[in-house]
Amino acid sequence: MTASDWKKTLNQLKSKPEIAARFTKYNKPKERKIGIATKKCERCGRFGAHISSYGLNLCRQCFRQIATEIGFKKYS
Fold first, then answer.
1. Do the Cβ atoms of 43 and 30 come closer than 8 Å?
2. Which of 5, 17, 49, 64 has a C-alpha 20 to 30 A away from that of 58?
């Protein structure tokens, strides 16, 4: 079960708090300490291709879109 599936199911169980509590207890995704899923892009939420240099915390696609706005120049 992916994180998005877990959230969808939890939204469906909002009207039944007892079942939602039991579902959360047994099916909540664990907090990651190492690996690719620890760092997320702050802009779009992607896990892969993460740029954390200079405290950016962006994926490479988002970095390319806003690089000129935050002061980076392309040299080539």
1. no
2. 5
The one-digit pLDDT tens for each residue of the chain (76 residues) are 566 677 888 888 889 999 989 988 888 878 888 888 788 899 998 888 889 888 899 999 999 999 999 999 988 7
Cα–Cα distances (Å) from 14 to 25, 26, 27, 54, in that order, read 15, 16, 15, 40
Residues in the chain: 76
Give the E-state strand segments of 1-76 in sequence order. Answer: 50-51, 58-59
Q: What CATH number corresponds to the domain at position 47?
A: 4.10.830.10
Which residue segment(s) compose the domain that 55 sits in?
Answer: 37-76
How many domains does one find in the chain?
2
Give the pLDDT confidence score for residue 60 in this predicted structure. 92
Q: Are residues 11 and 42 in the same domain?
A: no
